[in-house]
Amino acid sequence: MLRYKRRAEDQVGRPVHGSTRLEIAWTVIRSSSRSSSSRGGEVFFSLSRPPANAVEYYVVGKQWMWKFQHPEGKREINELHVRWDRGQADHDLRGRDPQLFVPAFRIKADVLPGRYTTTWFEATKTGSYHSSARSTAAPSTR
């Protein structure tokens, strides 16, 4: 700042001309990084929204248990039975402060008091899949 400060009131600085090649290269690099980040946004939003044909389950998380309600009205506590041939399962989660985490399906959802959280997964094969949560009990998903 001291080296380039104005010495007189009528002093005008010289224009600085850069390299045209450098300007073009920088513009191309920034444009390509923006397009890749916009692609990442598209992928994120497509994965965060449940598919249109997903079966919707109502889930309530409490401190030591989970309550699941099927679309037909059947209810389960601490277990969820999903038919693998019915496609994706969409969950509307509600609760006090637990976290639904099923590593086999790569889903992890924090449940906040007074808010609905939505998550979904696709059951592709028959089996018993265990879940875990921090400081609270979580369901065993089958």
Brief characterization of the structure:
This protein has 142 residues and is of the alpha+beta class. 20% of the residues lie in helices and 30% in strands.
Question: What value does the average pLDDT take?
Answer: 76
Number of domains: 2
The CATH architecture assignment of the largest domain turns out to be Sandwich
The helix-and-strand class reads: alpha+beta
**How many β-strands, per DSSP?**
10
Biggest sheet details: 5 strands, mixed
Instruction: Count up the helices.
Output: 1
Annotated CATH topology of the largest domain: Immunoglobulin-like
- Spatial strand sequence of the major β-sheet: 3-2-1-5-8
Alpha carbon gap, first and last residue: 68 Å
In the predicted model, the low-confidence regions spanning at least 5 consecutive residues are 133-142
Specify the overall morphology.
Answer: elongated
CATH homologous superfamily title of the largest domain: Cupredoxins -  blue copper proteins
Radius of gyration: 27 Å
CATH class of the largest domain equals: Mainly Beta
Structural overview:
- Helix content is 20%, strand content 30%.
- With 142 residues, the protein is of the alpha+beta class.
- It has two domains: 31 residues; 87 residues, Immunoglobulin-like.
- The chain is elongated.
- It starts with 19 loop residues before the first helix and ends with a strand.
- The C terminus is likely disordered.
